Amino acid sequence: MADTKAKYIFYHYDPSLAAAVIFVILFFVTTLAHVHKLVMRRTWFFIPFVIGGFFEAIGYVGRAISSTQTPNWTKEPYICQSLLLLLAPALFAASIYMLLARIIRVTDAESHLLIKVKWLTSVFVLGDVLSFLAQSAGGGMLATAKDPNGVKRGENIITGGLFIQLFFFGFFVIVAGVFQHRISRYPTGRSKAIEVPWQRHLVVLYLASAFIVVRSVVRIAQYIQGSEGVLLQNEVFLYIFDGTLMFLTMVLYNVWHPSQIIAKHLLDKTLSDPESLNSSHRMPDRFTGGHIAAG
Question: What pLDDT, in 10s, does the model give residues 167-185?
Fold first, then answer.
């Protein structure tokens, strides 16, 4: 079951074709739904999220191909599924970071933040990029390792990248939690006046963040345990703690899409946001009783 040339065992089990095909379909369906809303409602800041969805779908295509090659797996499908499934959550996180900034702008509540809103996205996306690059480098090294030392180096770099992601995401959740606590105690005039479900979107943000954090913790445990650990020896854990959690993250935002809180007439009155000012999604207006087109 090993690739003798690379001296690295690609899989410690026989990958399931049925499971891979099911998740290919699931991720393509939810991602295409996101593409439709992205284009129709012009929520361009959600582009990284959509790219992450394609990463997931294509990654499971790689697993499906590998499942047809057992036990003589080739390197290309393995590298495809390994890297794309590893990196997709970092892209989800980038859009989630930007979503919190837009909630703060809509509610005109920058004073409730631990850091200035102009730094909010920059700081967390920077951490996300560092995590993405580290995991990419480690994944590439792991996939092309020719000896146990190369495998170990790749695993260590991936683990470091996952720790970076976990650190920044943990801090992000703290920032969001402090913001919610403060605005609950001291609501702004705009947060009370607008009929925008920003509280609901905070709850969705917490759920999505929890899914990504759990997935990252399990991934860290996986690489710390190494190839002989129970997490790498059993395929079911990948589908429970990675595939399912990331699919649920995408479905959450299919149902509660961020376009519901992005509106030009709200953002124009707070801080400028050129990425979303062209949104054409119609938002309810409490003062007119009708709807206002956001662009």
Answer: 999 999 999 999 999 998 9
Q: Are 255 and 195 in contact (CB under 8 A)?
A: no
pLDDT value, residue 69: 95
**What b/e sequence results for 91-104 when a residue is b if at least 16 CB atoms lie within 10 Å of its CB, and e otherwise?**
bbbbbbbbbbbbbb
* pTM: predicted TM-score of the whole model, two decimal places: 0.83
pLDDT at 141: 85
Per-residue model confidence as pLDDT tens digits over 118-147: 788 889 889 999 999 999 998 888 777 777
Q: How high is the pLDDT of residue 51?
A: 97
Structure tokens, 167: 């650190």
| Structural contact between residues 171 and 113, judged by C-beta atoms closer than 8 angstroms | no
Alpha-carbon distance 153 to 142, whole Å?
Answer: 8
Q: Which residues contact 207 (CB under 8 A, 6 or more apart)?
A: 252
